[in-house]
Amino acid sequence: MKAGFVAIVGRPNVGKSTLLNRLLGQKLAIVSPKPQTTRGRILGIVNRPAAQAAFLDTPGLHTAKGGLNARMVQQALQTLSDADVALFLIEAGSPAIDSATRKALSQVTAARKPTLLVINKIDALPRTALLPLIDRWKDLHAWTEIYPLSALTGENVDGLFDALLKYLPEGEPMFPAGQWTDLSERDLCAELIREQILRQTEKEVPYSTAVVVEEFDESERAVGPRGLVRITASVLVERDSQKAIVIGKRGARLKEIGTRARVEIERLLGAKLFLQLHVRVEPGWTQSAKGLRRAGYEE
Ligand SMILES: Nc1nc2c(ncn2[C@@H]2O[C@H](COP(=O)(O)OP(=O)(O)OP(=O)(O)O)[C@@H](O)[C@H]2O)c(=O)[nH]1
Ligand SMILES: [Mg+2]
Fold it and tell me: Which of 249, 23, 242 is closest to 150 using CA atoms?
């Protein structure tokens, strides 16, 4: 029996969360076209007949100047140092290796873990471009393996799982067979609401927004054929102008955010959802310890 932790690390937006969801075969981590979507460590457990791999999705490694962003990078590096194996994700077709990428690489080197280089998004690359890309990357670190795949289409993802099994330690499963994550339904729901805000707002608004579930009422969850869950959530922003954007003209934006999040949450919970959203200004919450706590980002 093999069992261990696999950290998924890399620069923002390379597809780490998409890969986690693909490995799990269901949606756990939120995904968006904007960088810095993931804000914390996300555990997803995959069981196979003779193996348990506990994948840890992480926030993208970037240059952070304090506050929420520094906390995100810190969590990614901590997760990397706790893991047995690392997957360093890059995206095919990304331009020259810039200084931020070099820094991320040096952080992986410092962690001294067996590390596979995973080249994601090969669906978006002409096949002839892959070999030059591998050439450019192969000597930048002592990779245990180099693995091109597409997290979006699933191409080569099963092969990745088999490839990393050999680097997992021998051991009994760490989590019971039915467990797939350690996130509560409450936190998952907050994330699904935040995902819609990321997708439906622009500029700095996504980065100034947090979602806190204030009330999660399951008293009618077992009632009727599908049951009902009632959620009241606060959307935190940093400024009045951002509040106006999130609410939109006559509340249209907030309504759309709620409608789309509801579809996703009902799928997750297997119940009907009654969702109430309130927008609250919490000045500069991303920059202070107190603000981070209020937004649900405990130390
Ligand atoms: N074409 C293509 N797009 C992909 C692939 N994997 C992910 N994407 C897209 O890349 C964008 C970022 O994906 P995420 O999974 O959120 O990336 P991430 O690395 O988790 O990003 P952060 O959490 O911000 O660090 C999304 O628009 C995805 O749909 C892939 O294999 N091919
Ligand atoms: Mg992510």
Answer: 23
In this structure, which residue's CA is closest to atom 21 in ligand 1? 13
What domain count does the chain have? 2
Domain that holds residue 286: 185-294
d(CA 214, CA 286) in angstroms, rounded, equals 19
Which ligand 1 atom is the nearest neighbour of the CA of 151?
Answer: 31
**Do 98 and 150 sit in the same domain of this protein?**
yes
Question: pLDDT tens for residues 265-299?
Answer: 999 999 999 999 999 999 999 999 999 999 999 86
Pocket test for ligand 1, best of 31, 101, 207 (most atoms within 8 A of CB): 31
**Which CATH number does the domain housing residue 129 bear?**
3.40.50.300
- Condensed to tens digits (0 to 9), the pLDDT of residues 6-49 reads 999 999 999 999 999 999 999 999 999 999 999 999 999 999 99
Ligand 1 center–CA 31 separation, angstroms: 7
What is the 28 CA–ligand 1 centroid distance (Å)? 14
Q: Is 177 among the domain residues?
A: no
Alpha carbons 297 and 292: distance in angstroms, whole number: 5
The alpha carbon of 57 and the centre of ligand 2 are apart by a number of angstroms equal to 7
Q: Which two tokens stand for residue 140?
A: 């930048």
Looking at this protein, which amino acid is placed at residue 14? V
